[in-house]
Amino acid sequence: MKNMSLSSRLLWASALTFVVFFSAAILVFYRSQNRLTEQEMDRLLKSESLTISSLVNTNFYGDMDFEFSDQFLPLYESSQISSFFIFYSKDGQILRKSSNAPYALCDPHKAFRFEQFEEGNFRILSYVFDVQPEEGHVLPPNSTIPRLCLVVGNDEGPYRELVRKTILSNMPYLIGIFTAALFFLQLIIRTLTADLSNLSQTLANSNFSSTRSFPKLPLSKTIEVGTIVEKLNLVHRQATQVYEEALLFMARAAHQLKTPVAAIQATYDVLVRKERSRDELLEGLGDIQVGIRQMSQLTLKLISSTRIKFESKPELVPIDLKRFFEDQKKLFQYRAALKNISWIVENSSPSIILADEYLITEIFGNLIENALLYTPAHSSLRISWLREIGTMTIYLSDEGPGFPPEIVEHLFEPFHRGDERHVGGSGLGLSIVKNAIDMLEASIELIKSGKDGSTLRIKFNSPE
Amino acid sequence: MRILIIEDQNLIGKALQKGLIEEGYAVDWVDNLVDGLHMSSEIEYDTMVLDIMLPDGSGLDVLKSLRSLSHQTPVIILSAKDTIADKALAFNLGTDDYLTKPFVFEELLLRIGALIRRKYQVYGHIIQIGSLHLDLTARIAKSGDEVLKLTAKEFAVLELFLLKRSKILSRQKIAEHIYSEAAQQESNVIDVFINRLRRKLESSGLDPMIETVRGEGYVIR
């Protein structure tokens, strides 16, 4: 059962249901035969001919003597074992019975029942009724109307036989109907599950070694399967996009790593081709060191980029921006001093922000590094913030050449840059910033970019 | 032989220039597309080493520009782009060779040598005139079995004479092939240079072979 197809399961379920209904129908039919018989008896007793309790006369002692109408009695008298009757008085005395009657108790609470005697199986009906005087007869004074119990039995054989014969005679039709129903049921199920089967077949025959090998999914005639196909195609498109972005990232990362490797190798190859003086060797080794530094910087950025992507939920802690930027200033003071860049922090608002320490360090570390690369010597780097209800907005301005208009749209994509290679950037800084910003559900916007510098606005949702 | 390197990565450009100069080539190195387009249209180079990803555009634009002007300068692409599609694009635009980064400098030298020989329709790496043998790959000149002690530049000039055999080379032409743009010399330096080369050849027992063509330049016939 475990590996059965959906259509087979539906077919089996339908067949089982059909069998249950079929059996139930036979049972109902059989039982209805019984009920009919019961009704027939009831009708017989209530009919005029069964006003059998005709009062004939009263004897001297006032006892009632009564007889039964001729129309009823012969019916049971004449029959042999197949039917019988017993009249009981109120106190349980047998008043009269047919000659073949077995000993059957009057039990009006169990009016209709089956009982087995030596003579055979009987369907028994107990019926309690009041004796009514026949028309023209008068009850003696002080006499009470007696209450009698009539037990009537019928051989159940003929009824069972009737049911059996009915069922057997109709069996070919029933089997025919059953088979036809199953056939049409199968057709319906197959039609209903055709889409699903096509889909499962297509998916089963597919090789998912890459997003490119994702199969062309079949068109669907049913809304449900159509929705599944649509969703699968959507998931495929999204997976393809993510996969291709990852491939592109890897290709670009590999490309970026090749450049310093090529530089190191070319420098080494040229250096060892000839006998070199000490100064030449030192110069060559210096170049190799520069190449190694470029490679290690790029590697560290790649690690940061990957770490942020896989970082679990940010851990929000209160951070004092004043202190944070003082620490950043210490970290970057050497680079700032090389270009004689002044570091201006303007803070008039409260400076506490709720943020993840690692992410916020990545954000401003990369932004400040970028600004220091581009800002010309003897200029300034300006940082300020503004606390408003529920938000903290930080502004970072430099006096660099601004971002070329053609790259503004791709500013935060990895490895998109202007002439960064001349100043030594990795091409990953701003994409790391964007990923960290997204993790914190913050926003970043370039609000000014021109020849006299650029300003970035970073807005955090942060309660006071 | 004069080579133009268009390479924006400072360390690579510097190493290539140094290595090629030491091999006797005159090397110009620029690090952007605009300068590359300018230099390649102004000077006839024997080979160009071209990077694709430049800060101000694609190095392939230099290639397109050269070929659209019907310049036959051999070009070797030196790029980190390594897919078949990248290479197909470059070859379809008219590059003669393609080397991916990182590369071995020796291999680049061999490829540049092959491109230059093809340019001058020299098949094989040995040129011989009488008892003078020039091994273009090993960059050695021999008189019989004796290895001539030539500097890289002297070898380059001798190589130029033999590749352009029977053609008169002006002083300017010779200067262009041994001095880069940054080191252009006065024209009388070439006369001194040729005289020194002549002496070295003749002291090795070779017949005088560099002729002076008055008012025009020098030739080996």
How does this structure look, described?
The complex is a heterodimer of chains A (464) and B (221). Chain A is 49% helix and 20% strand. Chain A has helices spanning 6-46, 73-77, 157-204, 223-271, 278-310, 321-338, 357-374, 405-408, 429-439, and strands spanning 54-58, 64-67, 83-88, 94-97, 112-117, 120-130, 147-155, 316-320, 342-347, 352-356, 380-388, 391-398, 443-450, 453-461. Residues 48-60 and 418-423 of chain A have low confidence and may be disordered. Chain B has helices at residues 10-22, 33-42, 60-68, 84-92, 105-119, 152-163, 171-178, 188-203, and strands spanning 2-6, 26-30, 47-50, 53-54, 57-58, 75-79, 97-100, 126-129, 132-135, 140-143, 146-147, 210-213, 217-220. In chain B, the strands form 4 sheets. Chain B has a 5-stranded parallel sheet with strand order 2-1-3-6-7, sandwiched between helices. The longest helix of chain B is centred in the last third of the chain and has 16 residues, at 188-203. Chain B is globular. The model of chain B has no long low-confidence stretch (mean pLDDT 88).
Question: Brief description of this entry?
Answer:
The complex is a heterodimer of chains A (464) and B (221). Chain A contains nine helices and 14 strands. By secondary structure, chain A is an alpha+beta fold.
**First and last CA, distance of chain B:** 19 Å
| Rg from Cα of chain A | 51 Å
What topology, given as strand order, has the largest sheet of chain A? 4-3-7-6-5
Mean pLDDT of chain B: 88
Would you count the extended β strands of chain B for me? 13
Unreliable runs of chain B: none
Largest interface: A-B, 22 and 23 residues
Q: Roughly how many Å apart are the termini of chain A?
A: 61 Å
Our estimate of the beta-strand percent of chain A is: 15-25%
| Backbone shape of chain A | elongated
Helical fraction of chain A: 40-55%
Taking the sheet with the most strands of chain A, its summary is: 5 strands, antiparallel
* Structural class computed from helices and strand pairing of chain A: alpha+beta
Oligomer: heterodimer
Percent of residues of chain B in beta strands? 15-25%
**Helix/strand order of chain B:** EHEHEEEHEHEHEEEEHHHEE
Order of helices and strands of chain A: HEEHEEEEEHHHEHEEHEEHHEE
Number of strands of chain A: 14
Count every helix of chain B, treating DSSP H or I runs of 4 or more residues as helices: 8
